[in-house]
Automatic annotation (TrEMBL), chains A, B:
Record carries keyword Nucleotide-binding: no
Protein name, entry field: Quinol monooxygenase
Higher taxonomy: Bacteria, Pseudomonadati, Pseudomonadota, Gammaproteobacteria, Lysobacterales
Ranges of residues in domain ABM: 2-91
One Gene Ontology molecular-function label: monooxygenase activity
Amino acid sequence: MLKVIAQDFIKPEHIATVAPLYRELVERTRQEPLCISYALYVDEKDPGHFVFIEEWPDRAALDAHCSTEHFRRLVPLIDQYQRAPGTYLLMDAFR
Amino acid sequence: MLKVIAQDFIKPEHIATVAPLYRELVERTRQEPLCISYALYVDEKDPGHFVFIEEWPDRAALDAHCSTEHFRRLVPLIDQYQRAPGTYLLMDAFR
């Protein structure tokens, strides 16, 4: 199991622009056969700070996600409106 | 619904010390009646970087969690072994 937190920082004037792109990304990703969970959240203190919490069976499944048509099309469109580079964190379950 | 990411940074020589404290904190928190989900993860690149992903019905439920006996007893014990201050992020679901 691989848990992922991916964070995006969007310019305030472009939050409405990216919203439908995020919506499509979430919908299409959830249809990927290897996707266990994929949800998007917004920082209560910063409406341009978007946080994905994801779960994949393994690194290969995450890599496959990053190679899908929807990821390769939508992520660069979203990234045009960043105010700072995105971050991501790959984690294992604590045992 | 309130989603929370809480991150702790533990000194490498104390990871084994905090492990049973984290285990007890997770077990007891999951028994709280208002806890929707509460899971602990470890950064793949940093074994002292612990990440809680939590879900609560609302802020009052999170505040109640922070007032429990187990939270007030275990968190200060864990925090003794921090190498940097913990962080937390409160989020709403994206719609």
